[in-house]
Write a structure and sequence with these properties.
Length: 173
């Protein structure tokens, strides 16, 4: 088992996507990259902590590669807009990859450089993995537990549609 730590906007959205991928054993929504020791959702939304909303992914590299996770990550969010994903604005929604080892760093750098070579203005932050703070329990598996919630109905279905149309080979059976 390996881990990946990504921030691509609202963690409800990214969690809902990555939970559908084969080889992904667990996804935990949380906070990383800030300067306080016990961040709360309210504090990060106020911009007081500089944490990003992130997901910690436990994955089986025999079933899905880090490269495939990167491909999905960059496809389901906008890595060209600083501190914003759609209507969600603030540093907590920044595009970020926190790497756990040199291999993840090199693969992420290479992926970003290829996107830039393709003409995209990538603003995704790439940094060593900091301390990960799990979000409050009510944020975990939020979309599955709250499918009728307004924000979920607006923001998540387009990401899932893209996932199902572009990455069928990566979906769980």
């Amino acid at each position: 088992m390996q881990q990946a730590l990504f921030g691509g906007g609202c963690f409800w959205c990214t969690e809902a996507v990555f939970l559908q991928l084969k080889g992904v054993q667990k996804v935990v929504s949380g906070y990383a990259g800030g300067h306080t020791t016990n961040p709360t959702y309210e504090a990060i939304c106020n911009g007081d902590t500089n944490h990003a909303e992130v997901i910690l992914i436990d994955f089986d590299e025999q079933q899905i590669s880090y490269q495939q996770l990167l491909t999905v990550f960059f496809a389901i969010h906008d890595p060209t807009t600083l501190n914003r994903q759609g209507n969600d604005i603030g540093t907590q929604y920044r595009s970020v990859i926190y790497y756990f080892n040199e291999q993840q760093k090199v693969e992420s750098e290479s992926f970003i450089e290829q996107l830039k070579a393709d003409g995209l203005n990538i603003v995704t932050e790439l940094s060593p993995a900091p301390i990960f703070h799990p979000a409050e329990e009510y944020h975990q598996n939020f979309f599955a537990r709250n499918p009728a919630q307004g924000y979920c109905n607006f923001a998540i279905p387009p990401k899932l549609l893209k996932l199902h149309s572009q990455f069928q080979d990566l979906l769980k059976d």
